[in-house]
Amino acid sequence: MRMSKLFVQTLREFPSDAEVISHKLLVRAGFIRKLTMGVYNYLPLMWRVLKKVENIVREEMDRAGAQELLMPFVQPKELWEESGRWGAYGAELMRLQDRHGREMCLGPTHEEIITSIARDGLKSYKQLPVNLYQIQSKFRDERRPRFGLLRGREFIMKDAYSFDTTQEGLDKEYKNMWNAYTKIFKRCGLETKAVQSDSGAIGGSVSHEFMVITDTDAGENDVFYCDCGYAANSNHAISNLTPAKIVGDWTKAEIVDTPETHSIEELCDFLKIEPTVIVKSLVYIVDKDPVIALIRADKNVEETKLLNAVGGQEIRIAAAGEIEDIMAVNGFNADKGFIGPKGLKEYNGKPIRFVADKTVVDMKNFVIGINIKDKHLVGGNWETDVELPSNIADIRLVEAGELCPECGKALKVTRGIEVGNIFQLGTKYSAPMNAVYTDIDGKTKPYIMGCYGIGISRTAAAAVEAHHDEFGIKWPLSIAPYHAIVIPVSTKDELQMNVAEDIYKTLVKHGVEAVIDDRDERVGVKFKDAELIGFPYIITVGKGITEGLVEFKTRENNEKSEIKPEEAAEIVITAITKLQLCE
RNA sequence: CGGGAUGUAGCGCAGCUUGGUAGCGCACUUCGCUUGGGACGAAGGGGUCGCACGUUCGAAUCGUGUCAUCCCGACCA
């Protein structure tokens, strides 16, 4: 490719609306252009990168025994009603109507469709197991898209679905996919950590996310991990706590004055106690109805865990005013600092639900709010003074320093970008959708399913997050849009141009994806663009050519050397050959 | 969903207070000059100032509404 013909427009400045580095660099270097909120054009350079990521994914999936197909982007409501997700998926599902008023949606994922395909075609145990996958655009109407390609509404995803006859078969395929994923990300130049996670809207029991570890805001997930190998997303992490004082010093229950104690900190200061003897009551709104969570006051609630404990789609902390309103409806006139479970019965005409975190179960002689302004109950105990909710669950947010549930050492925390995930679905879709096969015993049974996703566009963006410097992107060779660029310093210099053309032709002839910067630009412009775009190899043909030397630079470490043109070509050709052998 | 801000040429911005018919840098076209780190000079092309309504002789500028985009918060009883 000749740079003069390459469709790319690099910008002198970063776009004003980009926040994270991958977004800034991909726009500035001319890879992507925003069309509308969370939706991007993939320009030629980006498309080359995406196709390379896709091909790595394709190769490893095929090697792992999966088969590629392609399902429609638009899906009918009926299938989603069969699985029960038309109502359950929430606002992220982009719904639309056709001219006949039939309801459809844009596919955010394809469990329903693949299950319908399977039940039509997989009738016998003899046809199983099977793993089917596709690579296509997905659409999720995110409440707040951001970070460019890292969280768009439309994005490219590889989604695979496996069908087995037994849990053992699923376990084996799950491990098979785990291994394939590890290889895929490694080939894309990314170090990933597989972490346990919540299974979210997809459903199922066991699931892991593949995280690119980062220390920037681009990593939207907190990952807790331990040297022993334990690693989990914050929405799923568990930990053991070091022993703490959970029995208060009061010998009998009594109501005491606690004026102006609107926070746990103020309450502790006033009563001269540790928060570990206080039961904290937090109000959440789950699908419009309040849920009150009880937890030891030095700990915090993990919203996804709480949501799982009560069931529902959307959860948020109650806003100012709502808490007072809930108390008022139940005949109390206090502000939020004094809320407690006792006496709160109903709201919106429905009984209020309570969830107790495991941390409060063994607490004794504790402090708790009783919905009376400027007063708390001290020396309280379950059953005698306050009813312990029947719904007891782990709804606690783990913190760094707490103890690993597997080995007991202190947990550490980092941020991660989720580039892939694997789920064990079991019969979550096959059972309700009546997707069954006939087993060896003549009985019909639902498939045991698994699903496996990789964010193709997110993986590419994560690669930029992981590989860049102050000059631009440093693409890993395996997914770079082009492997090398040849830069003649002066296009007017016949010798320089001839040598540059020779090197370029040699590279192309040997299968290297190369660009020659034949533009009549000053060399500074060419260098800036080459570094911004992130060519792994930069060969500069300049004055040194009179001595028979060119400058050879690897973008990875920005190391330069003066070598002969044939040597430069040889190094690149060897690297590409080696890359192809690894495939 | 709340809170804050911004919409003027492909990108980055000024002009708005105090209304008078749109400007700067980059990018683009042509010519000259230049060629080892985003040169310089000259001449050009490109914008119904997000949209709608209103006030006015006259609106990018004032008012109302609307749409879009970005940031922040979803932090804790």
Secondary structure blueprint with pairings:
Layout (H helix, E strand, L loop, with lengths): L20 H8 L3 E5 L2 E4 L1 H20 L3 E2 L5 E3 H7 L1 H4 L6 E3 L5 E4 L4 H11 L8 E10 L14 E11 L2 H21 L4 E5 L10 E8 L6 E5 L5 E3 L20 E4 L6 H8 L6 E9 L2 E8 L6 H8 L4 E3 L4 H8 L16 E2 L2 E2 L1 E5 H4 L4 E4 L5 E6 L11 E2 L18 E15 L9 E3 L5 E3 L1 E8 H11 L1 E2 L2 E2 L10 E5 L5 H16 L4 E3 L6 H11 L3 E5 L8 E5 L4 E5 L1 H18 L1
Parallel strand pairs: 3-7, 14-20, 15-19, 19-22, 29-30, 29-31
Antiparallel strand pairs: 1-2, 4-6, 5-6, 7-8, 8-26, 9-10, 10-23, 11-12, 11-23, 13-21, 14-15, 14-16, 17-18, 20-21, 23-26, 24-25, 27-28, 31-32, 32-33
The chain binds one RNA strand of 77 nucleotides through strand 1, strand 14 and helix 13.
Characterize the structure shown.
By secondary structure, this protein is α+β, with helices and mostly antiparallel strands. It folds into three domains: 21-238 and 413-465, BirA Bifunctional Protein, domain 2 (2-Layer Sandwich); 254-393, YbaK protein, CATH 3.90.960.10; 482-582, Rossmann fold (3-Layer(aba) Sandwich), CATH 3.40.50.800. Strands 3, 7, 8, 9, 10, 11, 12, 23 and 26 form a nine-stranded mixed β-sheet that branches. Strands 13, 14, 15, 16, 19, 20, 21 and 22 form an eight-stranded mixed β-sheet that branches. The longest helix is centred in the N-terminal third of the chain and has 21 residues, at 167-187. The protein starts with 20 loop residues before the first helix and ends with a helix. The mean pLDDT is 92. It binds one RNA strand of 77 nucleotides through strand 1, strand 14 and helix 13.
